[in-house]
Fold each of these.
Amino acid sequence: MLRRKVMPVKEVSDRHRALLSEMARVMYDAKGIGLAAPQVGISESMIVVDTGTGLYKLVNVKVTKKEGRQCMEEGCLSVPGVGVKVKRAKKVMVEALDETGKAVCFPAEDLLACVFQHECDHLEGKLIVDYASLIGKIKIKKTVTRFLKKAHDGTAFPPKGKFGAL
Ligand code: ZN
């Protein structure tokens, strides 16, 4: 599911609004700052984001007009215990539909820009591990294997990364 490219939403309905609210609840419960629909098993273009400046619930999201560079260590709810340094644009424009189906377009920068790019990667089936070096990927595999074992024992550790879970 995480590797599949999502389908666009044809019309924003009550079902989508309910899913977006549920996704926000999951994100806050996990102390995350972003969540994309594929992370909760839904292959549709929906994300929720809250970096502390308010909640975004967006449908059919696209990141356009990328400018500048930044590099942050990112964590991901779907790759627990792993932090990967990812180079991304510092400023972006976000184009989407809000939960009423209205087209919205707004700029984002720094952490917020980073989170929107991370969540849009999820919509394309891309994960932070794809940005890791070969050695990094081997380390990640060990960490994830260890996590799965601990999860099985009931002693799983929380997601890592400077900005927590996305
Ligand atoms: Zn993620």
Amino acid sequence: MHEKKDFKKPLIIYYIIALIVVMLLNALLFPQIQRYSVKEVSYSEFLKMLEEGQIKSVQIDETQIAFTPTQQLDDGKTTYFVTNRVTADEKIVDRLIDANVEFAQVVPEEMSPFIEFLLSWVVPLIIFYALGSFMFKRMSKQLGGNSMTFGKSNAKIYVEAQTGKTFADVAGEDEAKDALEEIVDFLHDPQKYRDIGAQLPKGALLVGPPGTGKTLLAKAVAGEAKVPFFSISGSEFVEMFVGMGAARVRDLFKQAGEKAPCIVFIDEIDAIGKRRDNAGMGGNDEREQTLNQLLTEMDGFDAGKGVVILAATNRPEILDKALLRPGRFDRRIPVELPDLAGREAILRVHAKDVKTEPNIDYTQVARATSGCSGAELANIINEAAIAAVKDGRKAVSQRDMEEAIETVIAGYQRKNAVVSPRDKLTVSYHEIGHALVAAKLENAAPVQKITIIPRTSGALGYTMQVDDEERLLMSREQILDKITTYCGGRAAEQLIFGRITSGASNDIEQATKLARAMVTRLGMSDTFGMMALETQSGQYLSGDANLVCSDQTAARIDVEVKQIIANCYEKAMQILTDNKEKLHELAKILLEKETITGIEFMAVLAPNQLPSTFEEQKSDEAGETND
Ligand code: ADP
Ligand code: MG
Ligand code: ZN
């Protein structure tokens, strides 16, 4: 197999290193060869040394005589001498006895060469091999794949006890739950469906923005069906080594086939399911192979067997068409951002995990969190709990929740940020500018709160607006009023100080985005009418748009957008000029109090209106104007 080559390489390098280490060890640990030095002398010299009494001990063999001198050289080594035994000299033994020379072992005893070889080469190599393969196994386990045995994917098998999730954990998303309920039923009793001849979809694709509970839903399906749950993330297929992705897919489906009925869940499937293109070079072969393998496996499956493939993505538009055709992920389950009721339900589910005061108004919190995903709502509850602990309280209060919303939307308060009095004054007028314009416009959402406490997000203050009701559609007038509200901040600075600041950057960005959408996508400009000039890519993510028009049209779009914003700015300026007195008055109050509620705001702006109407306002759809 050609993948194996990649793997053998590091092994060979490892053995070469081991060999070198063994050689070094041999030199260091078995140095006795060098601890002796042997000097050969002639027989006559031997006799001379014997006469002079220089010989301490001797060893006589058949062919040679070895001896040590009485005085060793002091280089640390033991030196012994050898000389050829002259057989003719028969009296040598007597003479040695006479000279009082000791008969002893002089030549150091040698190990048998076989044992020495064994000890100095084979044993260390065996030890290295054992150590090496042990480490290699651990390493590959850490990397997540058993790289020694190919085609063994590490799809994690969750069984019911481990996912521990049920549909009760997923709040809202009733349509998605309904669709998945069918699958759960099928997994409980596939035979029922087989008997009647019904074909259940092989796969279902959960699509929706990040944090709406897609992964959670898949786990809940497994929990409800009480079947094994194989889950793997798309990105896990495309990692490490070439050819692994396809092997993993193959293995995943093999394992799943053995465990049927079961669920295979591929999270973030866009990582492998991206549309294949024939753009010559730069194609991602590895990914394509993986995708092809996935398509093949899905086709090869007998749906009646009880294997259901779920996948999740927040970029359905980039998926390969082949994945979506019937027989594959033919069922598409949208998991959208929660509506008012959904948000309240999600808040309640997560509030179960924390201690709360008994009188929490979840509806109010849900109203103020329009556009938040389930994950963000879970985060709000958690932030509220943290705030309560910081405060030394034992339960979460309504106040904690409200503060947590702002924390999640606008970042933490920077209470000790140093803002110069001059900047504070500018920010006060800026924020009141937004609020005043919003209050005077017919179609703008009511102001809920105005603050000039800086946030970690960089905002020096913001105006929070909460709409009366959940809005799914926006009219042209509402959009224009929204843009006008964005313009209010800058207009107030211009009107009061005659100079403008960088504080409006976020407003400008938002206003431009809206105005542009009006012209290019919403068909709300007089010049172009109902003409799509942009296509949106990634509806669930950033919402990037690509122009689909000529350069001349693009230039005209810019003119149009500029005109819309200019008109709105003029309108905002007009409102502020007409209400300059109130602007001064409110800015002064805000500067003093740093935070004022919508009710306090309206009490000053329209004192003859009954404040009670504001207390009872049915509001939803939050929007805030930063800076
Ligand atoms: P996704 O996979 O869609 O990006 P997740 O399923 O990972 O989102 O959701 C992240 C977390 O958000 C979940 O673990 C859960 O705590 C919370 N959450 C999201 N949606 C819901 C929901 N509908 N009900 C309850 N909790 C939710
Ligand atoms: Mg997910
Ligand atoms: Zn602003």
